[in-house]
């Protein structure tokens, strides 16, 4: 029984080290705080002064011809491409889940807890997601839209 226990230790220690290294974030360019509410998201760019907004789904009767029903929002999250992004996720009322399938990111927002993850956007465009937690009757009406733009346009956007 001692030999299998030693073998398991030799397997466990490198795995724990790798798990720790995967969770480390290497100097992100932008930190975005996301707060889940019923039935919208609030965003705060904590690296910059007083940039915060709420993001609601656009009602069906107000959609433009080029908008997606149940997926488009009135205020998109603008992030620079080719840079490391840290996202902090929490919730104000019930458990939400901030999910962007194109990035492979799914982070639960729990009231009273701050979860974090990071991602790297390597191309410009629009990326869509939704709350993927059963957080209430209208949880599927909590869309997320990320707009990735070049860094120089992001700096101009932040200045305005």
Automatic annotation (TrEMBL):
Main location group: mitochondrion
Cross-referenced InterPro entries: CcO_II, CcO_II-like_C, CcO_II_C, Copper_CuA, Cupredoxin, Cyt_c_oxidase_su2_TM_dom, Cyt_c_oxidase_su2_TM_sf
Span of domain Cytochrome oxidase subunit II transmembrane region profile: 1-26
Signal peptide limits: 1-18
Database matches in SUPFAM superfamilies: Cupredoxins, Cytochrome c oxidase subunit II-like, transmembrane region
Record-level Gene Ontology MF annotations: copper ion binding; cytochrome-c oxidase activity
Entry membrane topology: Multi-pass membrane protein
A Pfam entry, by short name: COX2
Catalysed reaction, written as an equation: 4 Fe(II)-[cytochrome c] + O2 + 8 H(+)(in) = 4 Fe(III)-[cytochrome c] + 2 H2O + 4 H(+)(out)
Cofactor names: Cu cation
GO process annotations (BP): ATP synthesis coupled electron transport
GO cellular component: mitochondrial inner membrane
EC number: 7.1.1.9
UniProt keyword annotations, A-Z: Copper, Electron transport, Magnesium, Membrane, Metal-binding, Mitochondrion, Mitochondrion inner membrane, Respiratory chain, Signal, Translocase, Transmembrane, Transmembrane helix, Transport
Location within or outside the cell: Mitochondrion inner membrane
Domain Cytochrome oxidase subunit II copper A binding: 27-160
Family note: Belongs to the cytochrome c oxidase subunit 2 family.
Subunit structure and binding partners: Component of the cytochrome c oxidase (complex IV, CIV), a multisubunit enzyme composed of a catalytic core of 3 subunits and several supernumerary subunits. The complex exists as a monomer or a dimer and forms supercomplexes (SCs) in the inner mitochondrial membrane with ubiquinol-cytochrome c oxidoreductase (cytochrome b-c1 complex, complex III, CIII).
Protein name according to UniProt: Cytochrome c oxidase subunit 2
Organism from which the protein derives: Teleopsis dalmanni
Organism lineage: Eukaryota, Metazoa, Ecdysozoa, Arthropoda, Hexapoda
